[in-house]
Each structure stands twice: as C-alpha cells, then as structure tokens.
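#structure-requests
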Amino acid sequence: MADGQASEGVAAARVRGTKDMKTVVISGAVLVGFFFVGLAALYWLNPADHLPAFVPGYDPESDKRHFTHGLGMLVIALMAFALAALRGWGD
C-alpha cells in the first residue's frame, strides 16, 4: 500500500515539474520576443552611425537605416511569441 502512495507522489511531482518547466519556457520565449522587438525598433529608429558599436550594421560613416536587419529581428520576435503561444495552448 505504501509503495502505491509513493508512486502517486512521484507522478504528482513529475506533473508539477512539467508545469514549472512549461512556465519557464513560456516566460523565456516572451522575454526573448520583447528583446528582439526592442532590437527591431533600434534598427528602424536609428541610422547606422548611431547604433551601438557591438550591433551588426554599425558604420560610423553611414546614415542609412537598416530596415532588413530590423525586419529580421521582428521575424525572430514573432517566432518567439508563437512558441510561447503554442506552449501555452493547452492551459
């Protein structure tokens, strides 16, 4: 009898662990999505000479805006939001 109760406790702990991991994945995907939305805005709102030096596309002698870099960041953000939405679908 005690063995059956122990296995039920282990099963309940696995379910809790799975739900906790699902929450971590959803939260992480949403944070990544917002980060890439911010990067997209950075690329669209600032010319290349005003970008931070560590960002791809920085050119101190150019005043062009990197629309395609921003579009790529937006696509990555949408994929992260889609991941979060699909992981949370069954709740």
